[in-house]
């Protein structure tokens, strides 16, 4: 439930900002990211909250909510740090490398979150992370088109830079594993009773002659008992 609140609260803020924009009939584009201009730095913090239309807002709200909820639920240790880093570094990258126009919308952050989930599966290589990577691949495979300049008025730089940022953050946080990602020893004894093995645990690593000697030794021990 906390995962839903965490991601849902941010989506609610985006909707409140857009409702204010529409009802007050004001333009908030000037608060977006304008690359390499001092006034455009404010957009690093505010641009993901501002959207040009209802369609723009809705198209970002759903994947934003889903991807952030997945991260917060399955990667609790790095949820907040990964989100903040993706949010700020993606915006800063657009400010440094984007085209000289206003960039608004949360799509860059969305691409960063999705990339983080995918690359966490690649870097962590446990069942959970791999399954999550496959899920976002199936859900958002069509998003690959957004990283190239194919549509007018779309900040493809935000998308492309978001993907790179998500990859980098996933790499640097890959060692901060969750409790359910800690490898366990299937041979470990969790009870107070001593484990009894009828064959040596390394029997398959022995040569035939070594196995015969070990079997003879075990038979002698049983006979002595």
What this model shows, in words?
The protein has 225 residues and is mainly alpha-helical. The protein has helices at 2-24, 43-46, 54-74, 79-97, 107-124, 127-140, 156-172, 208-224. It folds into two domains: 2-181, Rhomboid-like fold; 191-225. It has eight helices and no strands. Helix 3 runs antiparallel to helix 6, helix 4 packs across helix 5 and helix 5 (107-124) packs antiparallel against helix 6.
Q: How would you summarize the topology of this molecule?
A:
Elements: H1 2-24, H2 43-46, H3 54-74, H4 79-97, H5 107-124, H6 127-140, H7 156-172, H8 208-224
Helix pairs in contact: 1-3, 3-5, 3-6, 4-5, 4-7, 5-6, 5-7
Give a brief rundown of this model:
With 225 residues, the chain is an all-alpha fold.
Mean pLDDT figure: 87
Q: Report the portion of residues in β strands.
A: under 5%
Number of β-strand runs? 0
Our count of helices gives 8
CATH architecture of the largest domain: Up-down Bundle
**Stretches with pLDDT under 50, minimum 5 residues:** none
* The CATH H-level homologous superfamily of the largest domain: Rhomboid-like
Helix content: 55-70%
What class do helices, strands and sheet pairing give?
mainly alpha
CATH class identity of the largest domain? Mainly Alpha
Radius of gyration: 26 Å
CATH topology of the largest domain: Rhomboid-like fold
Distance between the termini: 59 Å
